[in-house]
Specification:
With 219 residues, the protein is mostly beta strands. Helices cover 12% and strands 34% of the residues. It contains four helices and 17 strands. A hairpin with a 3-residue loop joins strand 14 and strand 15. The N terminus is likely disordered.
């Protein structure tokens, strides 16, 4: 039997690497932060060190800070807001661009540790709701990253902050703070609540509060 035109075809298979690099996790170096991140639910706040937070700001692609400037975060406490008072700042500082993933924040309580909750609204003087779980802050700057958030802002948004105990503030940057409201529904530490209008202008004592966001998802 005569066989002709026999071809041997070597088919190569390319392995596709589907590993996702978690840029938020990669800023962590302390054992406590790594353990807390691994244990946290997706989208929740994770307490980290000041250095880890700073690394998130400086190394995560596209990361930017909003609300209070970093230089002001280092000021001493000279005022306080009572528990269950939400505050926001001038709209230009409170504004977060559309498609941003909120990935971190820093704040501090006045003297007694507090549950603090960053808030989001798509209307500056509207109803604000929690971004994620509450976070336990002390009387010194307390830093957080957010575990691999899946939701970005659908439009330009605005942020505010509320605590269930007195929250540290400063009177060294007058006219930075804009308004406050204590018209809340639900339980602060338990979630599922909102801060509702009306907001009242106050320009003297902004809470210590900064948010980190990026439009580039790398997790």
């Amino acid at each position: 039997m005569y066989l002709s035109s026999i071809y041997s075809v070597n088919t190569g298979f390319n392995e596709i690497n589907t590993t996702v690099i978690d840029a938020i996790f990669n800023v962590l170096s302390s054992t406590a932060s790594i353990s807390a991140y691994n244990a946290a639910a997706v989208g929740n706040w994770v307490n980290v060190t000041a250095g880890e937070y700073g690394k998130a700001v400086s190394t995560i692609p596209g990361a930017s800070t909003y609300v209070m400037p970093t230089s002001s975060i280092g000021l001493g406490t000279s005022a306080a807001w009572g528990g269950n008072y939400a505050t926001t700042v001038l709209s230009a500082n409170a504004q977060i661009p559309a498609n941003t993933y909120i990935i971190g924040f820093v704040s501090r309580a006045y003297s007694t540790a507090a549950n603090a909750v960053p808030l989001l609204s798509y209307t500056f003087e509207g109803t604000y709701t929690e971004i994620a779980s509450s976070a336990h802050v002390t009387s010194t700057n307390t830093y957080f990253v957010r575990k691999a958030p899946t939701n970005s802002l659908s439009a330009v948004g605005y942020v505010a902050l509320i605590g269930d105990q007195n929250m540290a503030a400063t009177n060294a940057i007058a006219s930075f703070n804009y308004a406050y409201s204590n018209n809340i529904t639900g339980t602060l530490s338990g979630g599922n609540y909102a801060v509702n209008p009306t907001w009242t202008a106050n320009s003297s004592t902004p809470m210590f509060f900064q948010v980190v966001g990026t439009t580039q998802r790398n997790w």
